[in-house]
Amino acid sequence: MENKKSIDLKHQKHPTIKDPLILSAIVFLAVIGAIIGVQLITSLGISANTSIIGAVFAMILARIPLQQLVRFKSVHSQNLIQTSISAATFGAASSLILPIGIPYVLGMEHLIIPLFIGVVLAMYLDAYLLFKFFDTKVFPAKGTWPPGIATAEAIKAGDEGGKRAKHLLTGVGIGVLGSILKIPMSAFGVAFIGNIWALSMFGIGLLLSGYSPALFGVNLDDYYVAHGFMIGAGIIALIQVIYLIFEKKNNTDKDVDYAKTPKEIGKAFSQGFVAYVAITIIIALLGGLYTKMSLGMLIGFILFATLAAFAHELIVGIAAMHAGWFPAFAVALITLIIGIMIGFPVEALAMIAGFSACTGVAFADMGYDLKTGYILRGNGEDQKFEKEGRKHQMLAGVVGFTVAAVVVLFTFENYFSQGLIPPINHVYAASIEAGLSGDIATQLMIWAIPGALLQFIGGSGKQLGVLFSTGLLLVNPLAGWAVLVGIIIRLMVLKSNAAKYEQDMTIMAAGVIAGDAIYSFMSSIIKIGK
User: Fold this and answer.
1) Which of 102, 214, 230, 282 is the least crowded, having the fewest Cβ atoms under 10 Å away?
2) Under DSSP, is residue 423 helix (H, G, I), strand (E, B) or coil?
3) pTM, to two decimals
4) Is 320 within 8 Å of 80 (Cβ atoms)?
5) Rounded distance, CA 11 to CA 2, Å?
6) Which residues, at least 6 apart from 90, have a Cβ–Cβ distance to it below 8 Å?
7) Rounded to the nearest 10 degrees, how much is the dihedral formed by the CA atoms of 280, 268, 381, 58?
């Protein structure tokens, strides 16, 4: 049966967005996804993963008894649709309307359009760079990318039915039930899929951030512990990424095939750096920042914004790959704090905050989507088909991002005029207006040291520093308990005779994540309706 499937895989042609019906479905759902994303981020301050919703919609289309809709029975057509709606939702919410809300809150409405142009370009670049970095030593296709696994298992269950569907639906039921009881079920599900070392540090970080006031009488945020840890871990992670890019193949890699060679990765890295420099220059020119700074300060701004964008993208991508959670808003706040310490003028700080908040989100989302496609296309069994499918997914994502840009452009004024602004924007604005003291800079440097050491000790494979810092930045102790309990159960299963059920456990875990996403999405829509 497996051999037959492999033969069929090598002879099939991947669906394309050039198909009018597929393109129509993609655009239609992308519009819905973008509107949902904008509504959620401005009213509730959150963004939802709509991949499962897109996949379910495609499955429903496939079951309508019309000849024209038969094409939607293909799991690859369903994958293109989920890629587009996911891109549109995250793109509209976190990559676009959130960043441009920062200058609005600060009363600098003249900076909105220049920043909008910059973040749209950065969003496309984000997705392109993940496309280039995916299936490399830095971001391997075999990496976890938990939401990607959840979406793939949902699509496969809908296609194959039987035992797989039973396990997945059981997981969905557990996920929904746990979510109703206010348990962070996505964190619980991730524990059965991701790297145990990385997730253990993530869970410990979550618990420390939540219970430090009760246990130690200290609020970690008052001493910028989490921010310092992430700065130190982020710097080491960036160095490790650069090392991996230019490192020659060693013995640990001899049995691992990556789609991209180190030379190709290095080229993409260079292209990304140059592109970010270009986007930063565009923002500076269109926003008139050159009139607010000396030539030396302007050059410093361009270099800082470029490096911050790259670092932010990589940190968010690493956290997303290992844990399925990423501290995009918090890392952007760190970038802003450093910008304030350097002494950039207020207009430049507004642009830095928006630009850094944008980067990383599209990168992580595209990673989830390509992981879904990688599983559905046979885990790289046929590299030609894998590369073809990946290209079509990228194009579907571009359609989603483009729809998101159009929706945000024509709706942001209406939302902002009603006071519907992402809540985190007020935090950014308050930080810019208040400034920082020298004590804060000292605290950041002190806590950056253990963050750097932890990341160095864990290495690029475990990402202990980045994941621990991520947990510290996300104040959610219940999620910490969920992760650690899940890890304990997983270890007990692996050490018992039940290890043979590991595959079933993975499918159920994917269902748990999917159930949590479905419940979160539906409850958010109900809240908006009220």
Assistant:
1) 214
2) coil
3) 0.84
4) no
5) 15
6) 37, 47, 49, 361, 362, 365
7) 20
